[in-house]
Structures are given as structure tokens and as C-alpha cells.
Amino acid sequence: MKSYISVKDLLQRKHFENIEVVAGHDGLARIVKWVHVVDVTKIRNLLNGNELILSTGLAWKEDKVSFLSVVEQLIESQAAGLCIEIGTYSSYLPQEIIDLANGHHFPIILFKQEVPFVEITQDIHTLLINHQYQMISDLEGYSQALNKKLLTIEDHNEILTFIHQYLNIQVVTIFGNHDIQFTPKVSAKEQDELLNIIENHALASPSPVVASMPIQLLGDSKAELIILSRDRQITDFDQLILDRTATALAQFLLRKHYVEEKRHAEETEWLMSWLEGEYSEESIQEYLAYHTPAVKPKGAFVCLCRLDPFEHYSNVDLTYFKLYTRTVFEQQGFTLFSIEKRDYLIFIFLNKRNTGTWKQRMKEGIQKLLQNDTKIAKNKSTPVLGIGKYVEELKNIPFSYQTAMETIRIQKRCSQHEGSYFYDDLHIFRLISHLHKHLDLKEIIDEYLEPVINYDKKYNGKLMETLKTYLACNGSKQETAKRLYVVRQTLYHRIEKLEKLLGKDFMNHEKRLAIEFMLHSYEFLLSSKQVKGAEQESL
């Protein structure tokens, strides 16, 4: 339906047969909400806008200045147009007034013969009132049709298309992630033009050609629904239709959000049960065949991702990171499931390619993940990854999960091994971590290293650093001195001191292996204290 009555529409009514539009032809599409008969010169405060003014010209007679003032006031008051009865009190229209009206697209219509203003106002007011009743009826019909659509539609685009077709008007939807949708679709050039119109009218309240309504969902603004017209003004009826549509769109998005949350909760519950070992191989395969029928996994593993501080990351941040991670590793031949648990993101990787290349493909994916701009939220931090054992049977994924957690725990204590994302690559630290759970490592460390530790503490020496470097260089004095940036005499003096404290046989094979193991254990326990917030003190 046509949701408004324009000046041009009224010119087709009775008593407008013998007229002439002498100015403002481009403004004939102006909306008319009421009709007034005015024969005074001060009318600025008498109008609300969109009134069609009928006048005999009595107020100004042949006074061009008063006439000009009246027209200026009508334009300023957003009147729809001016109809003048020529002959009785006004015989001509000055060119200045015609130019002013044309410049503001303000219609001026001349009645060339005497007309009954009472009958005109009665006719137009009846038309306007009936139109208002019709609009109320149409609004109710629109709402009912929209509510019926909500029962069956599966995509919000159907709602946007519905309002576009009903009002025959351009619809623009700006979502919270800054995605902009145009209904109907337009060219890139037209998109820029429409966005410029929206931006230019953003400060106008209300705007004559743009109207917008926020889409609220659970107290949060998810989108902004905008209607825009370049051919006519936005009417009250347009605003009401926009309001009903925004409400329907919010209801649809809420329903969709509820369904997605329910599905996500069910998936999370199932995945957690999988990680806890509650499913058989057959039930896991059935679940995957239903949800990911195209995937034929050749094995799987768990990857834990720690983001510090986790509470500073919004849902949008986490969603973006998960989507980006999934994109990166799908290119490497993996399918991912993700779960959020306390301060971690848990990813279950299903391998779709050759089992022998899974680790290399993971390394390539991790490199791409960390090299790109994946630092998110205000406190930007690089993700810490821990990858558990690769398992060929999917029922063994709980073992991969436990080893992934162990990898993260070891990484916290061994910061110098940041490149050890894989449980398989931690080697000696896996053994140290296991022994730490069952033995008093400090007592064993003291048995081997206490003299050196006490010496460094007492004399602020660097024997521990020297010992570690000397062993790493396989006893090469030249290489050790180079790495420590000391002259050979200084190194010889330190080695003599180490021989006194540890024994001259400390480089013998078996004792050397034990000392190296204790050095790693010492760093492990020292890092454990740092993780717990304790002071860095000697063991």
C-alpha cells in the first residue's frame, strides 16, 4: 500500500480542476498530514509540519515583503505547500517568491477561480482520517503476516525482504560485527552512496529520508535496522512498520541464539564426556558420522590453548580466535571441535590425512597461527599451546587430554622450552614431572648440587651457569668460554672450583648424566615456585 498522501495526490481531488503549479514542481511528493486555512503573516508557531496551507492572500494583499516573509516561514516550518486563490486579494506572484519556492522545492499552487475552502478542508481531512484508519488496519495485517512468517522462516533475510517489498524502500542492516547488509543488493558504488546518506542524516532527528531502529537482544544491541528513501520522505507509518519489523527480527535472532546455545551446550556436554572416557569407539564413530559425515578420522589428539589473562577476552574475541584457529588448521588437514573450560580453550583435532605427517602439519599451522595477528583483546598475549599424545583409537582421546594438560603444566615450569608444544618432545621433563609427584626431588638435587648452589648464593658466583653451559658444550672449554663471554683463565678457575665442590669425576659419564638431570630438575622446581608466586630463592 501507499503509506502516505502527497501534494500531488491532492491535486487530483475535487476543486483542484482549475489550478496551476507555479513553483516548486520538484516538491509535489511532499507528504500532507493536515490542511490549514491561513490568512495571517505570523504563522511560524502555528504549524507542526506537513500542512497544506490554503490562503486568499488577505494577509499580505499586494505587500511583497509580507508575502515573502510568509513563504519563508512556511518553508522553515516544513509546510507541505501553499495554495493561493488568485483574484480577490492577490493578483500576481512576484518572481522573487517563485525563485525562493523553487530553490526549496516548495510547491505553490494557484486557484484560478474562487473555490470553497470549507469543502476542500472537509474533503481532505476525511481522506486523511480514512487513510489513518486504513494504515492502522494495514499495520495490524502486516504484524500478523510477519508473526506467521516467524513460525517458518529459517533465515533473517526473509524478514528484510518482507519489509522491503511491503514499503518498496531500501533496507540496510548494520550488525554488531560491522557487517553491513543491503536489501535488495546494490552495487558497490550505490552502497557507498547509501552509507553517505545515512551518515549525513545521522544527526537529524527525525531525518526526513532515513529512519533506524536498534535490534536489542538480551540487553545488548546486536544490529541496527535502517530504512532509507531517496524518492520520498519517511512517514509515521514507515516508522511503525520499522518498529514491528525490528521486534520480529529481534525475536528471530533470540530464537536462533537459543537454538545455537542449546546445540552448543549439548555438544559441549558430549565432548566433555568424551574427554572423560565415557564413550565407546562405536558410539564416538556414530556421533561423528552424524555431525561430520564427510570426515573419516585416521586418529586424533587434544590441544590445550591458554590465554592470559583469560577474563580480559570477550565472547567476540574468543569466537574470532576459534574461527581463525579452525580456518588455519583445516587447511592443514584437521577437523576441530572446541570447548571453553575455565582458563583454557580445549581443541579436539581429528586427523584426515597421513598419520606420519600430522606433527609437521601441526607445526606449520602453529607457525601461521602465531605469526599472524592473532593477538586479541586489550591485553594482547600470545597463546600458549600444549599438544597431547596422538591416538589412533578415538576412545583413547582422554589419554591425549591428560597428556596435553601435563604439557601445559611442564611448560609453566620450563619457560626456556617454549617451543615444546608436543608432549612427545618434552622427554626428560616428562620424567622429572612424574618423579616430582612421587619423590622429594629437592632432597636428591641437594645431594648433587647443594655445594654449588650455596657457593653462588654466598659469593654471588656464576658456577651454576658455568656448569650448565660446560655440560651443554660437551666439555669443550673453548666453546664454553665463548658462550659465557669470559676469558679462558676465568673459565679454568671456575672449573677448578666445580671440581672441588662436585669432585674431579663430575664429567665422568654416569655422574655427568646424573648432574645434568639434577640441573633440569632444579630449574623445574625453581620455575614451580615462580608459577606459584613464591620468591626466587635457593633450594
Automatic annotation (TrEMBL):
Leader sequence residues: none
Domain Purine catabolism PurC-like residue range list: 9-128
Domain called PucR C-terminal helix-turn-helix: residue spans: 463-520
Name listed for the protein in its UniProt record: PucR family transcriptional regulator
